[in-house]
Amino acid sequence: MNAFRLLADLTHLLSIIILLVKIRTTKSCAGISLKTQDLYVLVFISRYLDLFTRPLSLYNTPFKLVFLATSITIVYYMRYHKVVKQTYNKDSDTFKHYFLILPCAVLAFFINPKFTFIEVLWSFSIYLEAVAILPQLVLLQSSSNIDNLTGNYVFMLGAYRALYLLNWIYRFFAEDVVRWIPWIAGLVQTALYADFFYYYIKSWRNNERLKLP
Amino acid sequence: DEIADSHDEL
Questions:
Q1: For chain A, what percent of residues have pLDDT higher than 70?
Q2: Distance, CA of A188 to chain centre
Q3: What are the start-end ranges of the E strands in chain B?
Q4: Has residue B3 got a pLDDT over 70?
Q5: Short-list A47, A88, A89, A91, CA closest to A67
Q6: Could you report the per-residue pLDDT of A194-203, keeping only the tens digit for each?
Q7: Who is most buried in A36, A80, A190, B5, counting CB within 10 A?
Q8: pLDDT tens per residue, range A81-124
Q9: Are the beta carbons of A18 and A156 closer than 8 angstroms?
């Protein structure tokens, strides 16, 4: 465990809390992509199957349970809550996210740490997480005005994986740990946020509304 | 072992 890793996981948790606060307080999920949230549920389920097969960890296990519970809750709100589901931008959330699942599954089938059910699904979840934000970024580009909570949510979500990159650099030098699969996927994931980060920081510095081209 | 390691992160 190192400070980067701890900060990364807390940032990830914070992003989810921001989203839950937004949905619960404004009773609205405007600007949030349900497809991205669906993909995150799939990411967490396929990644945390090891909850049943591996020894529980005082640190990881609570986080895994919270991530699973919150991601499922968010999808439940967006799909079934009578008020919230009316605010979902169904016609703008158009990204064909099913097209992301098959390539990740095929890639996981061929590139994984070990060809077992758990490891292949784990690899699938790593690849899927890298691209899961795409529907959300596409939705933001078509949103006329992005509310602050949504902007902060996406920013924290991108920042957490960037912090994981620092964690991996630290672990490479301090613990001589090499992990190609999460490293490359994490780089791709963070790179996808590059233009969002640029516009987010620009809008923050000029103290103006966040607007993606 | 390598496999155990790949699961020590979230």
A1: 100
A2: 13
A3: none
A4: no
A5: A47
A6: 999 999 999 9
A7: A36
A8: 999 999 999 999 999 999 999 999 999 999 999 999 999 999 99
A9: yes
Residues A84/A28, Cβ–Cβ less than 8 Å: yes
Tell me which residue of A26, A40, A125 sits closest to A75, measured CA to CA: A40
Q: How far is B9 from chain A (nearest CA, A)?
A: 7
Average pLDDT over chain A, rounded to an integer: 96
| Alpha carbons A108 and A130: distance in angstroms, whole number | 13
Residue A46 belongs to what H/E stretch?
Answer: helix A34-47
The contact set of A with B (CB < 8 A) is 5, 9, 12, 50, 54, 57, 60, 63-64, 67, 113-114, 119, 122, 164, 167, 177, 179, 181-182
Place of tokens 């986080």: A63
Instruction: Select from A82, A41, A157 the least CA-distant residue to A149.
Output: A157
Q: What is the pLDDT of residue B4?
A: 53
Q: Which residues of B touch A182 (CB under 8 A)?
A: 6, 9
A22, A146, A14: which is closest to A74 by C-alpha? Answer: A22
Whether A116 contacts B5, CB under 8 Å: no
Integer Cα distance of A170 and A5 in angstroms: 9
